[in-house]
Amino acid sequence: NRRNPHQPEFVQAVQEVAEDIFDFIADKEEYHSQQILRRIAEPDRVVSFRVCWEDDNGNIRVQRGWRVQNNNAIGPYKGGIRFHPSVNESVLKFLAFEQTFKNALTGLPMGGGKGGSNFNPKGKSVREIMRFCQSFMTELFRHIGPDVDVPAGDIGVGGREIGFMFGQYKRITNHFNGVLTGKGLEYGGSLIRTEATGYGAVYFLENMLKHRGMDLHGKKAVISGSGNVATHAAEKIVQLGGKVLTLSDSGGFIHDPDGISQEKIDWVKAHKTHRRGRIEEYVEAYPAATFHAGKTPWGVPCDVALPCATQNELLGADARMLVENGCIAVSEGANMPSDLDAVHHFKAAKIMFAPGKAANAGGVAVSGLEMSQNSARRSWKEDELQAMLKDIMDGIHGRCIAYGDQGDGYVDYVKGANIAGFKKVADAMLAFGVV
Ligand code: NDP
After folding, report:
1. What ipTM was estimated for this complex?
2. Where is the Glutamate/phenylalanine/leucine/valine/L-tryptophan dehydrogenase C-terminal domain (predicted)?
């Protein structure tokens, strides 16, 4: 706290990892004497910059942009760019810190970073968004590169924004390379990148259930969010025979007791992405559903829960409610959606709990595969990529078990993910000496 005043999200993320790492390194002198955890918890650099742009009325607007390059011990910095009014240095430092472990867990050679701006894309015209993205990249380009730092999308940054930023990067540098991931298929993007995070979170959930001799068939799922991760998680749950009961956005959640079918998911995707609509309008299209303004969906009884909206959206009281209502597994599609109290409660109740850094790593994994395809100047087919994604999620699950199996049938996936991710990065740092 003293080193990072007014950065509660960052302190929370470091504290969560430190709790598990302390146990693991207790008898490992080298990690202590080399201050490895402290070094990982101090970003390599934080770049903060002015983003100046002109709105449609000719007003000059000034926003702040950041790139946090947390750690590049095992590969170029890699992590998304977020455009949301809630973005600040603390949020980006927490995300870059988490990303470092997540990327290590995938088994691919990627370091950890994150960036973004407090720019709010809601209500902006396409031309305003384009001008903002161009201005953002006019500064960012000097800090990134295919072997240096490879940003991707995140909240508020989808294929369209990546296109605007890539166009500006190419124009300024005259280089066509894999400097960004999440690109369009026409200019170096990868198949299944869009689906990868949501699908991956469900593959991880399936792996946890399988480990206990169960599957998703007939399971009732409660999902928050209605963006990229949430809708693709819902899609995969439905494909594997589960029933999705809820989706949400920052206005509240909808509960559809009939189940949110593929057709309804397609409606939500079109409504949220193309029409920029609100989830509450779902009940006009599907009247059997109800809308609950200003609320999160955790009170709806379910077998499995997937928080897929944003950080700290599932608190201790919500965790208690989920467990009391019979929820047996939680797979985090979003980054740190459960607060520390909720995580402690899930662990104490010994339900299956997959932290975001393990469960939502499918997205960055396919981004890593996009980098490989760009370097090789080729494109893999969809079925090859689907198989690689599934294989990577299986690998992450296996690494979590290796370090998180408590020996009594319970797997502490948080501990497993933290230790496996830490060990890979820490061992690389030890090899480099004191730098
Ligand atoms: P989107 O922008 O597509 O969707 C975000 C969703 O979360 C929207 O439904 C949004 O509602 C809701 N939301 C945002 N802020 C809040 C809030 N404060 N309270 C309630 N709901 C909120 O983002 P993604 O689906 O891509 O990302 C969701 C989460 O997954 C984030 O934590 C992201 O970091 C994480 N993630 C995403 C990856 C990816 O590949 N996309 C990869 C790994 C992690 P509204 O429309 O009202 O804003």
Report:
1. 0.98
2. 190-433
